[in-house]
Amino acid sequence: MYNEQFPSITILGSTGSVGEQAIDVAIRNHIRVNALCANKNVKRVEEQARLLKVQACAMADPNAAAQLKIALSDTGVKVFAGTDGICEMIGEHYGTDEVVVNSVIGEAGLKPTLATLEAGKKLALANKESLVCAGDYVMKLAKEKSIEILPVDSEHSAIFQCLRSGGKKRIKRILLTASGGPFYGMTRDQLADITVERALAHPTWNMGAKITIDSATLMNKGFEVIEAVHLFDVRPEQIEVLVHKESIMHSAVEYIDNSVIAQMSVPDMRLCVHYALTHPDRTEAVIPPLDLTQVGKLTFSKPDTETFTLLALALDSIAKGGAVPAVLNAANEVAVAAFLNRKLSFTGIFDVVGETVNTLSDATTCASVEDVFAFDQAARRIADENLKRLGAPIA
Ligand code: MN3
After folding, report:
1. Cα 308 to averaged position of ligand 1 atoms, centre (Å)
2. pLDDT tens profile 203-234
3. Which of 15, 135, 170, 360 lies 20 to 30 Å (CA to CA) from residue 2?
């Protein structure tokens, strides 16, 4: 019934966009799903648990965990609660060869990432904040445990595939593509009164609310640069962000012989999950084929970092290092939540994040992963204060 060629998997963030797509890919490839974790959508997790016949589930929200336990009381499914419970579930072994797909949203994904590596399991990583906040520690732990991190982000999956064509020491540059989001080309004044509804309508990718806003501000692209620096062990200045509106070329690697190897497909996240789960092999497609004659032309341009200041701030943060990227992420989580709750304008996100990063300039001194968590908390407090000053109810 299951294809034993592929490792069995645990999906963290199973009710989110990537999580649902991971389930789709698993079913089509007869990959066994051992365990699931979500925040508080009890109904959907119960459906998934029964459909996939999983052995364990975890809910980040303790009340949701209690409800799920009752809902699944006629099954043998073990239910875990809270962050500690999620990490405990990850630490249990359900088979010999296991992959944890981490598609948790935000900094909340970091502890599960560390727990996965501690447990010696392979990590298919969609939670970019794990690397943004604590890339040094995550990569060090992965190295110690000899675990390869399989990127699920479309750009990083593309780079990962392009890197099969040449040695690591022969990389000249990484060309990281960006759709630019729906507001690319606008001025700061035009961005000021962007509504939540307009910001949530992404032209190409169908994603969750948080990452859709991050794509519209280009914060997401900044995070992806930081993610790539850690994942592929390159210097920040080796990464060039290219605005590519068609979202067909998902990124490329330029080698020292000036050969550029790119990966292309229709924009569909399922391919990224699919490749992470079947790598180094490939199996029959779960997405439609790419018809380049339908696409017609591909365009590329340099990003506007003067208007989209968060991209510039991300480049600066990774250059400074330490916990500066963690501060950037925490401030952004607070600001985006405020925007989605209509308490902050779209450009207010830029200001709250910018001021918070400025205030916590000592975040460069970061000695441990505990320091990362401490700076994360400090950044949230300061971002909240900045919010009181800079926030205003919006339509
Ligand atoms: Mn991406």
Report:
1. 17
2. 666 678 899 999 999 999 999 999 999 999 99
3. 15
Measured in Å, residue 161 CA sits from the centre of ligand 1 at 15
SS3 34: strand
Please name the residue that has the structure tokens 């916590």.
360
> What's the pTM value of the predicted model, to 2 decimals?
0.94
264 has which bridge partners? 249
Ligand 1 centre to CA of 315 (Å) is: 16
Q: Return the ∠ at Cα 224 (arms to 116 and 9), rounded to 5°.
A: 30
Domain of 19, CATH number, reads 3.40.50.720
Average pLDDT, the chain: 95
Measure 91 CA to ligand 1 centroid, in angstroms. Answer: 28
Question: Domain span at residue 280?
Answer: 153-305
- Per-residue H/E/C for 59-74: ECCHHHHHHHHHHCCC
C-alpha 220/C-alpha 213 separation (Å) is 8
Give the contacts of 306 (CB within 8 A, at least 6 positions apart): 312
As for how many domains the chain has, the answer is 3
